[in-house]
């Protein structure tokens, strides 16, 4: 799930290899972008929108597809190793796309469809999370060896390896039968100014790593369970984290203090994706149950709940949405 840079749209990847675009102001569904001839009803797709709002980029099955936002027509398909692309990222200038297939990070040129570089190896250095630097010249690849490799995209050469910041002696991975496999996953996001790498899934906290030195700048503690999603605000002042505990927390990057904490109606719903609006006044968060909630960062109030119009997603989220509506002010409830 992602907000468009100008705050006009919200796009999300949902089941059956479909990406859905909404009007962020009204919450109305604008268009679905669907893989042709797909019969899968429980296959996850990831989606993003280009910085100029012209294209919807959707990763699912064996392909990354670039759709024209206005027409829904596929303008280009990106092929890698034939696996299911995961961890979709778009560079800040909209020129590059990155994803992971079979534990290997792959970076494509969106204008030509050319595969620019690869990083990692399924058997020896399996990549589980990637980020593209603000200038589009480097990639950070977090792997199951609990390190993060920084590589030059043009040459594919390693620049630096960040290590030694995961799973400290006093930070055990919390036992959770629903998400036991997530304990081996390292999610990494780079701050807009390139100062920090935010790392999640290190227990019930997140870490800010100094990009130049690789040392821990700050450890953010506040979740009751594993942190599984991260996002920096566009000005780099704040970091949002989403956890298995159904909480989204917004942190002040410099002080490490939480400035807002948001909780979903059902605390068992893991928050898989968080994103700030372009003006950094709102936070959107998506859960596995199939719906998105938008919060006002200044007041802490819930602004809107958005539910994908698919039978699978509505079935999973109907009880949660009912709980959400039940304790909303009438003005919000009636307008949404």
Describe this structure in words.
The protein is mainly beta and 336 residues long. It has helices at 311-326, 330-335, and strands at residues 2-3, 9-14, 18-23, 29-34, 46-49, 55-60, 63-68, 74-78, 86-90, 96-101, 104-109, 115-119, 127-132, 138-143, 147-152, 158-163, 188-190, 196-199, 205-210, 216-221, 227-232, 238-243, 247-252, 258-263, 271-276, 282-287, 292-296, 302-306. It folds into 2 domains: 1-78, Thrombin, subunit H, CATH 2.40.10.480; 79-335, Methylamine Dehydrogenase, Chain H. The protein has 2 helices and 28 strands. It is globular and about 45 Å long. The model is unreliable at 165-185 and 311-336 (pLDDT under 50).
The string of secondary-structure elements, in order, is EEEEEEEEEEEEEEEEEEEEEEEEEEEEHH
Which class best fits the helix and strand makeup? mainly beta
> What is the CATH level 1 assignment of the largest domain?
Mainly Beta
Number of strands: 28
Q: Report the helical percentage.
A: under 10%
What portion of residues belong to β-strands?
over 45%
Shape: globular
CATH topology of the largest domain: Methylamine Dehydrogenase, Chain H
- When the domains are counted, the total is 2
Termini gap: 20 Å
Put simply, the count of helices is: 2
Spatial ordering of strands, largest sheet: 1-2-3-4
Radius of gyration: 19 Å
Q: Which stretches of 5+ consecutive residues score pLDDT under 50?
A: 165-185, 311-336
